[in-house]
Amino acid sequence: AQSVSQHNHHVILSEAASLELGCNYSYGGTVNLFWYVQYPGQHLQLLLKYFSGDPLVKGIKGFEAEFIKSKFSFNLRKPSVQWSDTAEYFCAARNDYKLSFGAGTTVTVRA
Amino acid sequence: EAGVTQSPTHLIKTRGQQATLRCSPISGHTSVYWYQQALGLGLQFLLWYDEGEERNRGNFPPRFSGRQFPNYSSELNVNALELEDSALYLCASSGGTSGRDTQYFGPGTRLTVL
C-alpha cells in the first residue's frame, strides 16, 4: 500500500529563515506528488504539484519542491519565510484515484 | 470561479444518530472525493464518486455511505454514529479543464458526536 511520511511534526523558525520540509513516499510506480497548505482557519490549498518533467517545481508564494526519484522524496523549500507562512503543510501522493497524505507538519514562524 | 462548498460548517449529533454532510464541487468537475481528518489520524480517504457512481471506497465500515447527484453534488451519510466519528470531513473535486489529477478541497464539515 502506498504511504507518505513527513519527517517533522512541528517546525519553529524566525522570519527570513530558510525552510525545508521533508517528504518521502513508498509507491514505486507512476505517482503524482503534491504539497497542500492549511492556513489557520482556512481550508486546504494547493501549493504545488509534480507530475513529470523538470524535477524542480515552483509553486505559489515562493515555495518550491524537488522530486528525487532515487530517494522517493519530494521536499518542500522556501528560502526566506514570513510570519504569514505559519500553517500546516501536507505532502500527498496520488496513485490512480486517491490521495495518500502525510501526517502534516505544523510550521510556526516567529516575527 | 467558486470553489468547493460544503454544508453545514458544524454538526453536532449524539451517538447512534445519523449525519448527512453535503458537498458542491467546482463547476465543471465531475469527480467528488470524501476524506476524514480525525485528530491523530491525519487525512484518510473515504469515498470517490464520479459521474454519479461510487468508484471506490477507503477502509471504512459500510455505515459510511453516500451518493452523487446528477448535478455532481454529493452527500455523505454516516449511520449509527460513534464517538470516534468526530472529525473534520473534507470534500474535494476534480475534473473538467483542471483534469482529474488535481483535487481541490472545500472548507470541511466539523462533525462532533456526543
Description:
The complex is a heterodimer of chains A (111) and B (114). Chain A has strands at residues 4-6, 10-14, 19-21, 23-25, 32-38, 45-50, 56-58, 64-68, 73-78, 87-95, 98-101, 105-110. With 111 residues, chain A is an all-beta fold. In chain A, the strands form 3 sheets. In chain A, strands 2, 5, 6, 10, 11 and 12 form a 6-stranded mixed β-sheet that branches. In chain A, a hairpin with a 4-residue loop joins strand 8 (64-68) and strand 9 (73-78). The model of chain A has no long low-confidence stretch (mean pLDDT 92). Chain B starts with a strand and ends with a strand. Chain B is globular, with a radius of gyration of 13 Å. Chain B is mostly beta strands. Chain B is built from no helices and 11 strands. In chain B, strand 5 and strand 6 (53-57) form a beta hairpin. Chain A binds chain B through residues 32, 34, 36, 42-46, 49, 51, 90, 92, 94, 97-104, and chain B through 3, 33, 35, 42-43, 45, 48, 55-56, 58, 90, 92, 101-108.
| Largest sheet entry of chain A | 6 strands, mixed
Radius of gyration of chain A: 13 Å
Biggest interface, and residues per chain?
A-B, 21 and 20 residues
Helix content of chain B: under 10%
Q: Count the helices of chain A. How many?
A: 0
Number of helices of chain B: 0
Which class do the helix and strand fractions of chain A yield?
mainly beta
Q: What fraction of the residues of chain B are assigned to beta strands by DSSP?
A: over 45%
Query: What spatial form of chain B do the alpha-carbon principal axes imply?
Result: globular
Which runs of chain B of at least 5 residues are low in confidence (pLDDT < 50)? none
Main sheet makeup of chain B = 7 strands, mixed
- What structural class results from the helix and strand content of chain B? mainly beta
Which H/E pattern describes the elements of chain B?
A: EEEEEEEEEEE
Low-confidence stretches of chain A: none
Oligomer: heterodimer
- What is the number of strand segments of chain A? 12
**Helical amount of chain A:** under 10%
Quantity of strands of chain B, as a count? 11
Distance between the termini of chain A: 41 Å
Sheet-strand content of chain A, in percent, reads: over 45%
Mean pLDDT of chain A: 92
